[in-house]
Amino acid sequence: MTGVGKRADFEDLLPVMANKLGGEGLINELCNGFQLLMDKDRGVITTESLRKQSSFLGLQDLSDDELAGMVQEGDLDGDGALNQMEFCVLMFRLSPDLMRESRFWLEEALEEELKGDGV
């Protein structure tokens, strides 16, 4: 299976997880995923930390360049690694269905917040 196929499989699973866990549960799971993948000394996901976890993720056939490309795709600040916020943003970006659903969750959360304020 190619990296593209794996990415497509991943995209299909995030909305399912979101529906099952809810918004807060999904964010917690993403945070847990970040903790699993990060370099414990640096507190970020690096190409090296991805390589160390690649077999656990089913990505053992990816080259170093492909792993580096995964990090670069989400590296918003250009430091060569993914912090927790960059990782979560990347996970949402990789799932168009989840992006659409996240707008619904935001609207729902705002409505609940407004009800709590007595508005």
UniProtKB/TrEMBL annotation:
The keyword Nucleotide-binding does not apply. The keyword Calcium applies. Residues 62-97 form the EF-hand domain. One of its GO terms (molecular function) is calcium ion binding. Pfam families: EF-hand_8 (PF13833). SUPFAM superfamilies: EF-hand. InterPro entries: EF-hand-dom_pair, EF_Hand_1_Ca_BS, EF_hand_dom, KIC/PBP1/KRP1. Keywords: Calcium. This is EF-hand domain-containing protein. The lineage of its organism: Eukaryota, Viridiplantae, Streptophyta, Embryophyta, Tracheophyta.
